[in-house]
Each structure stands twice: as C-alpha cells, then as structure tokens.
Design goal:
1 helix, 3-stranded antiparallel sheet, SH3 type barrels, alpha+beta, 38% strand
Amino acid sequence: MAEYSTPELMMESDFIWREIAVGDHVMVEADIYDSTGLQLKKDRLYQVLAKMQEAPGNSKLIVESDVTGALIDVHPALLCSYESATMPVQHS
C-alpha cells in the first residue's frame, strides 16, 4: 500500500472527486459505520447522487445507504474503485 503525505492525499482525493460524475458508481474500501451502526458495505457499488466541495481537500460524494436508506457523505479517499455510468445523467 502506498503511503501519502497529507498534501498528496488531498491532491489525489481532489483528482478522484473531479473524475467521478453524478450517476457514476463507487465502491468503498471498507465497511462504513457511524454512531448508529453500519452505513455502507464494502464490495458493493453505490450510485453517486450528488457531489459537494466546500474547499479543496474538503470534497465529498453523496450516496444512498442500502442499509438505512439515508444519504451518506463519502470522502474520495475512502474509495477503492469507481465505474462510469452507462448512460450520462441529464440535468434539466
């Protein structure tokens, strides 16, 4: 596993965030928990519903949990892979 410094990790996360589009599918590298329990499962694709970036290095993708149905913020550094959508999302 590669070791990254904080600036490198921020740059890599920003690059991944820019590459992924709304409608693409992402996979987290490990199960994601919060104080209420399991939120996202590893080895499962989640569709990106929205993207937010408050500042460089502070970006997140919004997906829906298949466990709780809640919208979950996922930082790009937590991803192990992503797939482009077969049909681009049309914005109106």
